[in-house]
Write a structure and sequence with these properties.
Length: 188
């Protein structure tokens, strides 16, 4: 884990070791592979309206409940599984978000069956040019032209709960953009 020295700061995550570790070791680092991206997409969707720390604390519960985010396994979930998940205190119990996770697994499989991948779709929306490093968290956009285009394409492919703000959070978390603020301990 990174520790603060001199005048370095952490963009977010101070005060909670789990949150700090996520910031230092994971957020903004490249993520590839359909299962890994499906996990991040689902978790970003569940986070909508909640604190990311809430999701981080339940992450292992989500992984267990959603079969490690294996697209084939989750795509096979049915109404019984939805009811099982609605009773699972280890995750956020929101029917629309649970159903969206299953929908997104099915859309991931459909992509694979068409010879494409979720990885290629997501990474196809990586901005061509890096923006200047934000000086403060207030300088970080909530969404971009690229996140809006990613959301539009995913929706056209049958994905759900993938609005431009949620997709920008995915882009940040998975390393498509680097929004660590200037002076952050994680700036590489």
């Amino acid at each position: 884990m990174i520790t603060e020295t001199n005048d370095l700061v952490r963009c977010f995550g101070d005060g909670d070791p789990l949150y700090a570790e996520y910031h230092d070791q994971e957020w903004g680092r490249e993520v590839h592979g359909d299962a890994a991206l499906l996990e991040r997409m689902v978790l970003e969707g569940f986070q909508s309206g909640l604190s990311w720390l809430t999701i981080l604390r339940k992450r292992e519960g989500f992984r267990e409940a959603f079969a490690g985010f294996d697209p084939g396994a989750v795509a096979g979930f049915d109404e019984e599984d939805v009811e099982r998940l609605m009773g699972d205190a280890g995750i956020v119990r929101n029917r629309r978000k649970i159903e969206a996770a299953i929908t997104n697994a099915r859309a991931t499989l459909a992509l694979q069956e068409s010879g494409r991948s979720l990885d290629a779709v997501v990474w196809g929306h990586r901005p061509g040019e890096a923006r200047p490093r934000p000086q403060a968290w207030e300088d970080v956009p909530a969404q971009t032209v690229e996140s809006a285009a990613l959301a539009k394409e995913l929706k056209s492919l049958g994905f759900a709960f993938v609005g431009p703000t949620t997709m920008y959070a995915l882009m940040q978390a998975c390393g498509l953009v680097d929004d660590h603020i200037a002076g952050c301990v994680a700036v590489r």
